[in-house]
């Protein structure tokens, strides 16, 4: 377990919260010139997920920071001209292409790991590599089929082979097409100056720990490890040489580390008001979200309907640097439906109405309908504020 020296900088809980908000792109003017690619490089990882309500999570991430960016613009920013690749980080994530060499440690680990659950038919691996070389880029379906049966987990030999090649780094996911991965050979997809695995594990881990610290602004050992799903002992081995500096945060009760650049100037500027994807890196780790914001949240999409508290895809509402409520959204034609709204008191009404109105505009909805408000007395004030904003 990492311990901090006595000279560690001391910060209040509020200072730590504001540092985290600025590091994640929610405090201060956004860098619109850098656009979506700037958001990706600033965060270091954008998580992917199959759920699409307002939009898919990797679209919601830049929207939450930049506002109404065109969805086609977002996809092009990720995938055109080899600016990114998909790989296993916090989960399946879009990553900046320049970080390809720093995931060599994970590719090596996958190559050395037995794959018990997916036996690979003889010759299939070599066949998909040969086919991609001659015909790629291709989806698993185009390579010969992704599934043996209709069950989502019942992969074909082709799918097992190409996913293994992806984990090993011989194959790269170069885009998502209709949510299907499009595979190509790494030798063709990754710029030659980056196509190497010669960095040792220590160099890779040091880089990823520093990147996590920069993206978080401030974090505990567990926060930093979770960002790219490293092990605690991997963080311990390199954090002293990562460039991060030790800090003590009021009320956290555990050692923490910060990006030194984040400590040089006080976090100031305009706060973003927006709906957040549950997979947003600001809140994707529940313990950190509770520690920083005093806000307990979990995705209930995989919870039986009768046991859900806040809804299928409840999205926290960020306003004034606080999490002030939740909205479980849906779309019906050109109406954004707030199926369930939870508000942190009357003062949250304007912010939640603003977040809903902006989200509706972004997804080309002309109306917002509220179905349920957990505090019934706030339903009418919310409806009036929505009517005012929608004109």
TrEMBL record:
It holds the Pfam family AlkZ-like. InterPro entries: AlkZ-like (IPR009351). This is Winged helix-turn-helix domain-containing protein. It comes from Streptomyces viridiviolaceus.
